């Protein structure tokens, strides 16, 4: 096979890149190890920045998001038994977030890809990257029938996540990795029932962090800080509700309603960045290049930002033959990556209990929360980063 851009991974990064390239008349082939049913059914976080929403709309895949997504103009910080609302739209000149689950974004992008007749190969195995430092890099793999196939490309986009094969294909002498593993995780549950709140609640409590969010009018997503080594069996339903009620309790009369829990899981917390995000004819995007703790709601949005930069660079090459944007892809992408890494680390550090810290640290966190909710300048800093900084102008 022969294509212009070979894309590994049918997550948001790979699928959106393929879509943006098609709009520019650039051919691509997308390889995915999982089945279509699996990638469309995996329920993941879904807070979309303003720039992500705008890009999905502008590229023609936002119709269902506009119809079914929930636009939020504020976010709530809860501590000391009281809720403090930050008016995101007011603080940022009208910018907001959209709550629309990641698997729904994937469904929209898969449909757009297949409706356009684009090549999207599910169930592939043993993907390897060859000749990355030549002008004709290759992808070799077993297709869903077990046959060995090879694709010769002009460029390869590694969008296959943290555990994929793309990042390790960059020689270790070239890549530098930065990582922070946090001493806690999130215990997440999906609950049947109506929304517990109109906006997301980020709660700080001496027993640990809690998050109240929504996935749809019928399904709610709740998290609480836990030991990263906890197992699902360690958290029976009664313990979950008791802990959530304790961490969300207050004197304002608001109370979280219980519901039927139908999914549980532990989410690890880490910050990670690899530099550079390119080697030869390989370009990394999304979780293959960076991971953020979910507190800042930046994972999917960073993937979107990466492929926006990469699609523009590839379009410049195929349109004019110029490689300047491709050569500086890593530099351009990493500016936004490190800003999001800092914001996600800052939100995580402010809202979680570090149980090896002293009461002094606890008082510092409370002081920071009081400042953020009491100062317009501090609230604006949080709001600007949370709704997403504007994209660089093309």
Blueprint of the fold:
Layout: E1 5-8, H1 12-23, E2 28-31, H2 36-41, E3 47-48, H3 50-58, H4 63-68, E4 70-72, E5 74-79, E6 82-87, H5 88-91, E7 97-99, H6 102-115, E8 119-121, E9 125-130, E10 138-142, E11 148-152, E12 155-158, E13 176-181, E14 185-192, E15 201-203, E16 210-214, E17 219-226, H7 237-248, E18 260-267, E19 270-275, E20 278-279, E21 282-284, E22 290-291, H8 299-320, H9 324-327, H10 329-351, H11 359-374, H12 376-387
Parallel strand pairs: 1-2, 1-12, 2-8, 5-15, 12-21
Antiparallel strand pairs: 3-7, 4-7, 5-6, 9-10, 10-11, 13-19, 14-17, 14-18, 15-16, 16-17, 19-22, 20-21
Brief synopsis:
This protein is an alpha+beta fold and 394 residues long.
Defining traits:
single chain, FAD/NAD(P)-binding domain, D-Amino Acid Oxidase, Chain A, domain 2, seven-stranded mixed beta sheet, six-stranded mixed beta sheet, 36% helix
Describe this structure in words.
The chain is an alpha+beta fold. It has 2 domains: 5-46 and 101-180 and 270-352, 3-Layer(bba) Sandwich (FAD/NAD(P)-binding domain), CATH 3.50.50; 185-267, D-Amino Acid Oxidase, subunit A, domain 2 (D-Amino Acid Oxidase, Chain A, domain 2), CATH 3.30.9.10. 36% of the residues lie in helices and 26% in strands. It contains 12 helices and 22 strands. It has helices at residues 12-23, 36-41, 50-58, 63-68, 88-91, 102-115, 237-248, 299-320, 324-327, 329-351, 359-374, 376-387, and strands at residues 5-8, 28-31, 47-48, 70-72, 74-79, 82-87, 97-99, 119-121, 125-130, 138-142, 148-152, 155-158, 176-181, 185-192, 201-203, 210-214, 219-226, 260-267, 270-275, 278-279, 282-284, 290-291. The strands form 5 sheets. It has a 7-stranded mixed sheet, with helices on both faces. It has a 6-stranded mixed sheet with strand order 8-2-1-12-21-20, with helices on one face. A hairpin with a 5-residue loop joins strand 10 and strand 11 (148-152). Helix 11 crosses helix 12 (376-387). It is globular, with a radius of gyration of 21 Å. The model has no long low-confidence stretch (mean pLDDT 95).
